[in-house]
Structures
1.
Amino acid sequence: MKTINPIGIFDSGIGGLTIAHEVNKILPNEKIIYFGDTQHLPYGEKSPKKILYYCEKIIDFLLKKNCKCIIIACNSASSIAFQKLLKTISEECILCNVIDPVIKYIEFEESIKKIGVIGTKATINSNIYQTAINKLRKDINVYSLATPLLASLIEENNNSVLQNKIVEMYLANKNLNGIDSLILGCTHYPLIEPKIRSFYGQDFKIISAIDHIGL
Ligand code: DGL
């Protein structure tokens, strides 16, 4: 594949643009094709079968555009469909997900002992973060919480008092009590990072794929 071939990036909506933005910073000369599947948002509420089906269709589309690399910029799709898609995709195209870079970062972060993960129902129910983290770091306790309303609220750019209350309500959940760091396990969530940061304070470690996509 030639350098002029584009990089394909997709998500259920605008969340993956947070990844596209970082990729563009790291590789400013690359052409990016972005696909936001807003027709089927939220992926996090869909069955694994449907998520896989949507991903296959989008990947077909991106392959027809000659993408040399495709980034699944969605945690729900990465957790449900990545391994299956990897088996079917042509060798000429590199398929990436947004979970592996976060796991690579956590592996060597000795200070992390009690980590929280927030994400869609699909991501949290898949248990992908807990499984991957504990495979490498048995000393880390992982506390997961599904936050299903957030992606749609962010997608609607709903910046209301209600949205703030919902964010606070989720973060105050007892499942996340006493964590020393938090994974934003959905690519929409960096768009509300300031709200999450104001709940935990400046020194708290917030981890998201956007900071580690180059790993
Ligand atoms: N941005 C997607 C993710 O990272 C989720 C949004 C959705 O539920 O569609 O999981």
2.
Amino acid sequence: MHPKKIVTVIGARPQFIKASAVSACLADSGQLREVVVHTGQHFDPNMSAVFFAELGMDKPAYQCDIHGGGHGEMTGRMLNEIEKILLAERPDAVLVYGDTNSTLAGALAAAKLQVPVAHVEAGLRSFNMAMPEEINRILTDRVSRWLFTPTDGAAAHLAREGVDDSRIHPVGDVMFDVALHHGARTGSDGGMLGSLGNQRGISAGRYCLATVHRAESTDHPQRLAAIVDALTRFAREIPVVWPLHPRTRAVLARAGRLNALAQALVLVEPLGYLDMVQLEKHAALIATDSGGVQKEAFFYGVPCVTLRDETEWRELIEAGWNRLAPPVEATAVLAALRASLGTQGRKIAPYGAGDAASRIVRRLASELQG
Ligand code: UDP
């Protein structure tokens, strides 16, 4: 049987992590051949190369260098490049992940060339059209042939939008697959936690881990100030470790807040996946505006405060694992951090059985070969 060709388009940190699970299954399938395109959206070694190395992924076949600029400029340049690659490769399907500009550019370039699109992490909605991610995910879902949903809620959103059942494939969350595989590899000894213990006196179970990277946090000075002030005050009660996303670092530096923050908190560079998992697993609390980190907190049984007005992962709020703290006012955010410390949610299993990647590959193989 001649293997069918899949072009995968990725470009941002969470996409490398999600793709690692699916790419491994594609390589094992024997029925499908994968050609990976990296758009270059994330390009720092600690935002990109580290994940390929740690998660055992091959170097992408195509490495573009597209980042920065406005959303339109970035997405437009990606469309231009991806279209050329698709015309040269003539794939049987294009695979995209999540909700970034790379996702939308990959989906749109393929759809216009009549190449069927598979969207992993389809159906998520924040119902907030001010988020660039919400626009990207709605448009990507609209043009995709296969909608691989991570949760029942995501599948229900698509059904409500009138998507035909035959396009919706509830498979579970590929991030859960990755967490099951790699989470088990990290203990509390050595690694980043070991170094932070030696250098800064951080110990397992006695720190809060924070991440902030979304435009809705970084592009609004008052919202960012509410987050920074709340974390600074919280750090007087429990150490706060914050791996700083490059965009957040740049905004804080421009606002002249970085030096004072470095005194109050434990600021570190963005972490590789295994160091990040280690810090997540052993945190007393996680405070984040990240989608992936909210779920990983739950995978490792750590309470989470989401520094946003809403979340796509409602089931974690309902089960008591996660609490929303809209970053409007520092005192309210601080109260949410304090209230969440030491809490545990209800036992739930909303993200499938940890076999989402193999289910995706089986579905694509059977439909493309059939
Ligand atoms: N992550 C990481 N190092 C960090 C921060 C996050 O490896 O310093 C991982 C995290 O464990 C999760 C993913 O990156 O798997 C989440 O990505 P991000 O927060 O950038 O995007 P989102 O999930 O919000 O789309």
